[in-house]
From TrEMBL, chains A, B:
Gene Ontology process terms (BP): nucleoside triphosphate catabolic process
Pfam families membership: Ham1p_like
Superkingdom classification of source: Archaea
Cellular component, GO annotation: cytoplasm
Organism: Caldivirga maquilingensis (strain ATCC 700844 / DSM 13496 / JCM 10307 / IC-167)
SUPFAM superfamilies per UniProt: ITPase-like
Protein name: Non-canonical purine NTP pyrophosphatase, rdgB/HAM1 family
CDD domains from the UniProt entry: HAM1
Length: 183, 183
C-alpha cells in the first residue's frame, strides 16, 4: 500500500489520522510543502474539494472540520479555528449562557486525490456542549464537547475512547475502508 | 473615464460606492457574472488580492470589509458576514457584556485590476460598539457601531454623514483619488 500525504501543519490531526489508519496497515505522513488554499464557505465539502482540486496529485489528503452548534445556526462551523483563536472556548460558552438547547455536532471531511479525482469521506459525532471546559487531553474544542451517550468531554476521555467516537476518526475510517476495498 | 465593474452581489455596497465615485465623475456597475473566490485569512488585503489575481481584468473592482473588535482579538474580522448570519448583532453584543473596552474599527479594502496588476486601497473608521442595536438605515453592523467623535450609530445617521465617515467610503475615495491622478 502507498503512503498517504496529509496536507496539514497540525500535529494533533496527523497523530489522530495515523492512529486510525495504522489499524488498516495504511501509513500517512505530514505534507507541509504545499500551501493549502482554504476558501470561505459554509460547506466543509466545498472547502476540501477546492483545496484538493488546485493541486490534485495522487495520494494527497486534505481534511477540514468544524464544530456546529445547533442554537447558533451552525456557528462556528468552518471558521472554528479562527473563532477558537479569537473569542475562545469562554466566548463560545458565553453565547450559550442560559440556553437550554446545548446540542452540537463535530463534522470532519477528508478528501483524497486519486486518479485525478477528489473523493470525499465524512464523519460526524453528535453531542452537546458542557457548561465549563473540562479535561486536558486532545485539542481545540475537545474540553467543551460531550459526545452522545457519555458524560465526559472529549478532553476527559482517553485517546482510545475518543478515537472510537470522534468525527475525524469516523471520516478516516471511511477513507481506510475505501482504500482497502480498491486494493 | 472608463466604467468600473464591481464584483459584488450586495446592493448596499454598490450604492455606497456609486455615491462616492460619482462625485469624481467615475461610474461603477455591478458585475455579478464572475464568481468571487474568497479565501480564509485574517488579512482583508490577502483576501482581496487572491480574488482579483484569479481573474485580473482591467477595471474589475473587489471589496472586502470587516468589523474588528479590540477586546475580542479582532473578531469577527474577515468573517463578519458569516458571524452576522449566525450569531447576529445580539450574539456579538453578548460577547462584550460587562466589558469596559468596547473599542472596535471597521476596515475596508478595495482592490482594482489595472495593467494586469492589483492595486489596493484601504479605509478605516475607529469607534466603539453600542450597548444595544440602534437605528434602521444602512446594513450589517451599522446599528451597533458608533464612530469616534459621535454618539449616533451608523444606522442612526443619514446616508450623507455615514458616507463622509465610513471605512468603505474612505477606501473608495482613495481609489478615486488614484484614478483621477493617473487620468
Amino acid at each position: 500500500m502507498v503512503t498517504l500525504r496529509f496536507v496539514t501543519r497540525n500535529q494533533h490531526k496527523l497523530k489522530e489520522a495515523t492512529s486510525i489508519l495504522s489499524q488498516y496497515g495504511i501509513s500517512i505522513v505530514m505534507e507541509n510543502s504545499i500551501n493549502k488554499v482554504e476558501i470561505q464557505s459554509d460547506s466543509l465539502e466545498e472547502i476540501v474539494n477546492y483545496a484538493l482540486r488546485l493541486n490534485c496529485v495522487d495520494w494527497l489528503v486534505v481534511e477540514d472540520d468544524g464544530l456546529f452548534v445547533d442554537s447558533l445556526n451552525g456557528f462556528p462551523g468552518p471558521y472554528s479555528e479562527y473563532v477558537y483563536r479569537t473569542i475562545g472556548l469562554r466566548g463560545l460558552l458565553r453565547l450559550l449562557q442560559g440556553s437550554r438547547d446545548r446540542g452540537a455536532y463535530f463534522k470532519s471531511v477528508v478528501g483524497l486525490c486519486i486518479n485525478n479525482e477528489v473523493k470525499l469521506f465524512t464523519g460526524i459525532v453528535k453531542g452537546r456542549l458542557s457548561e465549563e471546559p473540562r479535561g486536558s487531553s486532545g485539542f481545540g474544542y475537545d474540553p467543551v464537547f460531550i459526545p452522545e451517550g457519555y458524560d465526559l468531554t472529549f478532553a476527559e476521555m482517553g485517546e482510545d475512547l475518543k478515537n472510537k467516537l470522534s468525527h475525524r476518526s469516523r471520516a478516516f475510517n471511511n477513507l481506510a475502508t475505501y482504500l482497502t476495498r480498491i486494493n
